[in-house]
Amino acid sequence: MIVHETTTTSGTAATPRDARLGGLRRFAIAITVLNVLGHTVLGFEQSWAQPLVAIAAAYATEFLLEVVDARAGGRKPRFHGGWQSVVDFFLSAHISALAVAMLLYSGDRLAPTVFAAVTAIASKALIRIAIAEGTRHLFNPSNLGISVTLLAFPSVGISPPYHFTERLGDAGDWILPGIIVTTGTLLNTRFTGRLPLIAAWLSGFVIQAIVRSALTDSSVIAGLLPMTGVAFILYTFYMVTDPATTPQRTGAQIAFGAAAAAMYGILVSLHVVFGLFFALTAVSCLRGAGLCLVSWARRRMPVGVPAPAVAGRVQS
């Protein structure tokens, strides 16, 4: 995972691991606060059982996979070393669990939520791609968990967009999105360096709406309407920008964001619902195929011939 160098409170340069953990900790706190407020103030329509079972399932899956991998590799599990190590180890699982519980709606059924959480966490261990430094998981866990669940459970949908601000009134309809945009921009500026990707995604989303309007005589306003929802804002600042599963270099970031927007436009034109989540999954698949081809070409390259630089190479 690539992050921009930052500094610690003492003024010394932080390591990439420090910056990564800093971003994860802040994101975990933010999504926890949002879920608590959602179920107590905002008007989330899921029950309290949804996030609780999602957390339990995600934690259990993360723990089991880490124990198995540690034993197979002859190393200590990453959660060894005290309570801080335990907390840091479960940050990713915590974020993924609350994301799928918040964005999926399955009525009073808990099985789809558990399935989504387990799929999200398991994908990090089971779907990996070789890179120069080892391997790296390919898909944003939350997005893949949601995408697979929507396919596996046709009766499950996405949470209604109004429930994020249902009880806030006219002022709250602006205040909450404003807070999310502000905090998301700060996090992506300081910890992930994904502002070019965000800009390309948003610009591409506007362009695809205009293109679809020109080709199909649909309304441009209708095409842009998803951008006004809190779910779209969360997706933009906290899902499509996942630094572990998106390119690092500026040009590759722009290509990735534009490709996601273009894929969304294609899916909507084909009347595929839930296009946001499927678009990111599809573009990640294409990126993975490209990285595999590059890796294959490097293995076949004669010894002594320098390998070409690859834009957007994933590092950890």
Amount of helix: 55-70%
Mean pLDDT: 86
Number of domains: 1
Number of strands: 4
Outline the biggest β-sheet.
Answer: 2 strands, antiparallel
Distance from first to last alpha carbon: 4 Å
Kindly name the structural category. mainly alpha
Low-confidence stretches: 1-13, 310-316
The main sheet orders its strands as 1-4
Question: What best-fitting shape do the alpha-carbon axes yield?
Answer: globular
- Gyration radius (Cα, Å) is 20 Å
Strand content bin: under 5%
Topology (SSEs and partners):
Layout: H1 16-42, H2 49-73, H3 83-89, H4 91-103, E1 104-105, H5 111-126, E2 128-131, E3 134-137, H6 141-152, E4 157-158, H7 169-192, H8 195-216, H9 220-224, H10 230-238, H11 250-269, H12 275-300
Antiparallel strand pairs: 1-4, 2-3
Helix pairs in contact: 1-4, 1-7, 2-4, 2-5, 4-5, 4-6, 5-6, 6-12, 7-10, 8-11, 11-12
Written description of the protein model:
- There is one protein chain.
- The chain is mainly alpha-helical.
- The chain has 12 helices and 4 strands; from the N terminus they run ααααβαββαβαααααα.
- The protein has one domain.
- The strands form 2 sheets. A two-stranded antiparallel ribbon has the order 1-4. The chain has a two-stranded antiparallel sheet with strand order 2-3.
- A hairpin with a 2-residue loop joins β2 and β3 (134-137).
- The longest helix has 27 residues, at 16-42.
- The chain is globular, with a radius of gyration of 20 Å.
- The termini are close together.
- The model is unreliable at 1-13 and 310-316 (pLDDT under 50).
